[in-house]
Amino acid sequence: MANGTKEKWDPALTRLLTSLQQASNLPSTDEELGFLSDLLQSKELHALFHVHNKVISNGSSDKFFPILSTSMDVVADVLEELINRPHMSEDCKELFYLLQKPHVQGLLCAHDSVAQKDYYPHLPEIPPPEADEDEETVKIVQLVKSNEPLGATIKTDEATGKIVIARVMHGGAADRSGLIHVGDEVVEVNNMNVEGKTPNDVLKILQNSEGTITFKLVPADGKASGRESKVRVRAHFNYEAATDPYIPCKEAGLDFKKGDVLHIVSQDDAYWWQARREGDRNMRAGLIPSRALQERRIIYERTQTKDGEDAENDDFDREQIATYEEVAKLYPRPGIYRPIVLIGAPGVGRNELKRRLIDIDPEKYKTPTPYTSRPMKPGEVNGKEYFFVTREQMEEDIEASKFIEFGEYKGNLYGTSAESVKAIVHAGKVCILNPHYQALKMLRTPQLKPYIIYIKPPSLEVLKDTRNANHARSTFDVNNSRGFTDEEFNDIIKSSARIEFLYDHFFDETVVNADLAVAFSQLLTAANRVETEPLWVPASWVQ
Ligand SMILES: Nc1ncnc2c1ncn2[C@@H]1O[C@H](COP(=O)(O)OP(=O)(O)OP(=O)(O)O)[C@@H](O)[C@H]1O
User: Fold this and answer.
1) pTM confidence score
2) Could you tell me which residue ranges the SH3 domain spans (predicted)?
């Protein structure tokens, strides 16, 4: 056979190849026939056939059976167990690292699918043999009414005018019964025919009934997919179902706050997703606006409010519409720490907090030495306060995107290089940065994986009191030789509001810097948490 190999080609392939040689009179090009012939003779295809035949011949025997089919759960348990250990041996560290590798997880996931025989085709249900073809099948479903809502919504079908099940909430009473599905037609409720009634009429019947509720339903043709999606998102807006005029059923809504992580269990409906709040004990999902719906709302709101006159330069940063961000848990890796980024208005106290953190453990917490094009002053050492480089060199490096942030002050350039941040991270230290807020977008990359803490000022009154009591030095004054003026305090509050407006969807945490000791202890707790706990990050960072 081809290539003179002694391999036993599959008879089916050989037959195909022979008929291909006889098919030269078919209306196809030489190129097409050549392609097919090459494909049928290719080693890869034959190897695939070989594997297929082996699987088929082994599949029928009971020789192999899985020891377990939930290895991914075991991995999660082991990671959780390891993370809680105060000290890890080298072996544990290696295991911890290996178990997080996407390839290992992919392999175990495939193993579980095979072990659970997830690949078997799902056959349609066979109708009961005695059913008359013309007669509609009905099912009688009985649910016991409790304080818990039914977990399903109804609507009038536009085409038929009949009452149908519009939605079944994941984990709700209707869903758990396994008997009620989207599209089922409601014929009777508690022996009352609902033909010609409105969804509101049916709702009244339900509200007025007690104990067991009996539904007579005509099943929908196809069953809705019962599988839960695994998607988790972080919400970037507050939502309150009671004040949403468009939600199809207010009682079925799920309220959430900006920053909450939601488990999206169903995206079947283009406008209304079903979700649970991560960590909630309530298994019943609730309705939330889909990304598409929320984006439309935001665009509409913006066209209503934006008069264009007070739009500021960095408003383009808001062009991106923040609704939901897909997130996943990132497990800390021993020896490789996420940089901690302090963001806030000039003068709010970021340097003070950074200084205190470094003072606690200067070997652990490090900040990169900035670069500058300004001439070295007497007594200064290159690489200590700054790396001194020429303006041309710095401009070239800025052009080549080597700086994570840069700016000009009094005719000289200043900046932090990406390389110096990487060097600290790779040396096993915790890198602390307090860049200008516009650098956030450049910093928030899957490579750096920063943990972003927003340093927020307290109210104007508390800001003034705490700073004046501490004889705080104004950072607006070049020599730091005086306190803050009232105007500068106002500026801190104003810039902070602007930073929040533009970037709050990037913040992992907010620390209010009122009492310095309290703010610092909150920062320290956050720094420890980043080192030890699995935390939610953009899903793309863990893929
Ligand atoms: N919570 C606080 N209570 C009292 N004083 C504070 C507090 N936080 C910071 N300060 C003081 O305020 C002054 C300015 O703080 P700091 O230098 O940290 O500001 P900054 O945010 O780094 O400003 P810039 O970004 O402009 O450099 C310092 O004198 C600092 O000690």
Assistant:
1) 0.65
2) 228-298
